[in-house]
Amino acid sequence: MRLLLVAPPGAGKGTQAAKLAEHYGITNLSSGELLRREIAADSEIGRKAVEYVRRGDLVPDDLIFQVLSKPLIEATRHGGYVLDGFPRNLHQAEEAYRAVQDMPSIELQAVVHLDVPPAQLTRRLLARSGQEGRIDDMTTVVTHRLEVFVAETEPLLGFYRKRGLVLDINGDQDVDRVFSEIVTNLDRELRVGNS
After folding, report:
1. How far apart (Å, rounded) are the C-alpha atoms in residues 84 and 87?
2. What is the distance of C-alpha 65 from the center of its chain?
3. What is the three-state SS of the chain?
4. What range does the domain containing 28 cover?
5. What predicted TM-score, i.e. pTM, was given to this entire model?
6. Model confidence at 14: pLDDT above 80
7. Nearest to 31 by CA among 51, 61, 74
8. Residues with Cβ < 8 Å from 57, sequence gap 6 or more?
9. Of 70, 80, 173, 174, whose CB is crowded by the most CB atoms within 10 A?
10. Is 187 a residue whose pLDDT tops 80?
């Protein structure tokens, strides 16, 4: 199974990605987590990415491709993946689509879109900042991250809708209900798609 989660910051992508990976026995690939590891390790990629993360801006495409390419191929060899945080803009989606034309075994099967109202997202992100102390969850950065999502990431949905891959999920429910709705929709869609 090869999935992508698309949702604004604070919508619960990380939580749902972990639950989906466990449920389906696939690899959870979070571009944000991989980047945070690079930053913590003070690697060359981490040093290049840190300022973008601090501002709440999208990390340049070449850095994201470097971080994800090997883990993505490896995950495909071991049952599949759930991607969280990549692609984040239309250009990345188009580039990824072109790249996998030579490797159809890694191409996406479904795109799960978690929809959560902006006011709820802001509350969640500010609460997370207080609990986890993440540098990308401060008040001004939160507002900017949500603006970046609307401008850069939402256009992805149109790209994937044209390919019939998007499953819209109400992300403004408790975690277990969101998960149940995702699994029900995935099982139905992928069973239909494979029959």
Report:
1. 8
2. 14
3. CEEEEECCCCCCHHHHHHHHHHHHCCEEEEHHHHHHHHHHCCCHHHHHHHHHHHHCCCCCHHHHHHHHHHHHHHHHHCCCEEEECCCCCHHHHHHHHHHHHHCHHHCCCEEEEEECCHHHHHHHHHHHHHHHCCCCCCHHHHHHHHHHHHHHHHHHHHHHHHCCCEEEEECCCCHHHHHHHHHHHHHHHHHHHHC
4. 2-194
5. 0.81
6. yes
7. 61
8. 144, 148
9. 80
10. yes
Cα radius of gyration rounded to whole Å, the chain = 16
Which pair of tokens denotes residue 8?
């604004």
- pLDDT at residue 131, rounded to an integer: 62
- CATH number, domain at 103? 3.40.50.300
Question: pLDDT tens-digit profile of 136-183?
Answer: 556 777 788 888 888 888 889 999 999 999 999 999 999 999 999 999
Bridge partners of residue 168, in order along the sequence:
113
